[in-house]
Amino acid sequence: MRSKHYSTLKTATKHPKSIHERVVWKEDKILLVQENDGRWALPGGWMDITETVSSNAEKELFEEAGVVGKADRIIAIHDHHRHNAVNQIFTIIKIFVECHYINGEFKLNSETIGMDFFDMDHLPTLNDGKTTYEQIELCWRAHKDESFKIEFD
């Protein structure tokens, strides 16, 4: 006999889930948030049903980092399974949204314990299940090239 959760799991694995990664630069330094395990990642989170890509990016940026920003452009759409170390039972599509920094002050929350801006030559230990050095490099290339074309796969 199958568990009553079988049909929910079966449905969840059929349809991709969307995560948005917020890419914010300040004086050519990238914003990262420190997670509860001490490792760092781009601010990111699940797409809420009632949100658009830009509104979700701006909302989550404030919730995780305390930063007010304006979503400017999509720079990449990645299949999580191809680019990150942690495998999930369902497909995750990661949308990297570059946001213009307006202002901000970190407030302790349930998801992150800190935030900071990092020079590309001095990146901290990343949570590669969420953010890889290659993804940060991709963000840097997009930041430096206004004609950068969206990378997707």
The structure class reads alpha+beta
Task: Please summarize the sheet with the most strands.
Answer: 8 strands, mixed
Q: Rg from C-alpha positions? A: 16 Å
Counting H and I runs of at least 4 residues, what is the number of helices?
A: 4
Mean pLDDT: 86
Distance from first to last alpha carbon: 38 Å
Shape descriptor:
globular
* β-strand amount: 35-45%
Q: Percent range for helical residues? A: 10-25%
List the uncertain runs. 1-10
Succession of helices and strands: HEEEEHEHEEHE
Question: How many strands appear in the DSSP assignment?
Answer: 8
How does this model look, in words?
This protein is α+β, with helices and mostly antiparallel strands and 153 residues long. The protein is 25% helix and 37% strand. It contains four helices and eight strands; from the N terminus they run H-E-E-E-E-H-E-H-E-E-H-E. Strands 1, 2, 3, 4, 5, 6, 7 and 8 form an eight-stranded mixed beta sheet that branches.
